[in-house]
Design brief:
Blueprint (H helix, E strand, L loop, with lengths): L1 H24 L14 H4 L40 E4 L3 E2 L4 E10 L2 E10 L5 E8 L5 E8 L2 E8 L3 E2 L8 E7 L7 E6 L9
Antiparallel strand pairs: 1-3, 2-3, 3-4, 4-7, 4-8, 5-6, 5-9, 9-10
Length: 196
Amino acid sequence: MNLRLIGIGAGVLIILSLPLAGAIAGPDFAGQDDGKSGGLFSTLGLSDSSRAAPTAPARTATATPVRPAAGPERRGPIEQPRTDSRCGPELSSPDGVEAQTCVLVGEGRTWGRSYYRNTSGRPLDAVLTVMGPAGRTVQILCAVGAGDEPGLCETPKEESAGAPDSYSAVAEFAVPDDEGKLLLRSGSNSPAPGDG
């Protein structure tokens, strides 16, 4: 009885190994590909997501040169639009506030930005104002946290209405209480310290 079980097991093993042997053998030596071969997955009737559907004809490699897609060739990081800036000097106050204020122009829009550092040990308010031609003004209030981490306050970008040098920006840093003590005023066209 053991011999009969061994014989049946060997027969089943041979039947199951035929598709595997065909898959390992690969395409025939004549270079003909009838679309039925294609590796272990397709031979066993399983799908392989990296291959075409079983009904699609198999493709053969050719020596056709690869042409790049139409359009300009891009290399490296995507180029950012150009932004021009006009900044005043870096100023600091004895109360522990440092700032530099700029007018920025890019893509037909103008806005103000103030870079700051608050080492005063208390939270402050910063009011950033951008003044343009024909009395145009944009103003924003920024909360400046206590701590010495650098930060920035920036106005919304507005459509430019004149030459870049017709704009100016001013940032005022003050204590946010009833007194409103002004600690520092920084402008995009402020004179550098020592310029008078």
